[in-house]
Amino acid sequence: MATEKILITGAFGQLGSELSVALGEIYGNDKIIISDIRAENDPTENDFTYESLDVQDAFRLGEIIKKHQITQIYHLAAILSANAEKNPLLAWNINMQGTLNVFRVALDQQIQKVYFPSSIAAFGPDTPAQNTPQHSPMNPNTVYGISKLSGELWGNYYFERYGLDVRSLRYPGIISYKTLPGGGTTDYAVDIFHQALTQKSYTCFLQKDTYLPMMYMPDAIRATLELMHAEASTIKIRTGYNLAAMSFSPEEIYKEICKHIPEFQITYHPDFRQKIADSWPQSIDDSQARGDWGWFPAYTLPSMVEDMLIHLRERLQTPAYSYLTA
Q1: Distance of CA 79 to the CA centre of its chain
Q2: 225 exposed, middle or buried (CB, 10 Å; 0-12, 13-18, 19+)?
Q3: How many other CB atoms are there within 10 angstroms of residue 160's CB atom?
Q4: Distance between CA atoms of 124 and 202, rounded to whole angstroms?
Q5: CA 242 to CA 91: how far, in whole Å?
Q6: Integer Cα distance of 72 and 300 in angstroms
Q7: What is the pTM of this model?
């Protein structure tokens, strides 16, 4: 591990901001290079080396890899589902061209491993909605889903043809108390906590009975690290592993939050994101991940809600979150 140098693209996003810390704890912060499209003077809480990077710029990507002698890439840069529908061509260019750049440059620079995060958005309306199997019809009807499925197939192609060690997980919606919603369809399950604590009311953009697969961030981080640290011989899926923890509806998480905040109220006004959610699975069969490399989630809906409220109350007292109470 002492010789590893890891590049994270999209490091200031929801997953990247926490995965970088977890990787720093394993390898040392000096071994982690974080990158994002934001300005170079962006502050970071940890002593990571920061490089400004637009993943559409393959030359710049190659420069960073050479400069820091990178051995692994966690390619997290992407425009998420709801925001992608607002600007489909930009989302396609960033999500798809950025991914192809990572694969191509990683191969040229003899990178050891590449991590590409996929999503339940890679499925589509003709996918079995209940207990969606690892291998099932995948015809996504959003630009985000199309780009994730395409990324999976390209990752498998680079593995099969060139031997590039590409690994991937199909994340459900990820819930975290450390970052704000970032433009995804499942983001209601993050925003609802902020509104419960600060406003005591929430207007949900999905219908009350819309079930979606979800996961608490600590489980998502652990799953990512377990996959990347697994022996290559145990990795049987080179597109994207199904990954699951819990499934719930807005009404169910609302009722769970009410156990801690009885005065909390919710109303429902579905918008364009309802159509996106309706095209996704309601629950996921992740038995392949459990069998191949021992995946198993730690958090349930009740334990996640309790932990979220404890930590978010603490964060709401910090200046960075003070605007939420205004």
Answers
A1: 11
A2: middle
A3: 11
A4: 28
A5: 23
A6: 32
A7: 0.93
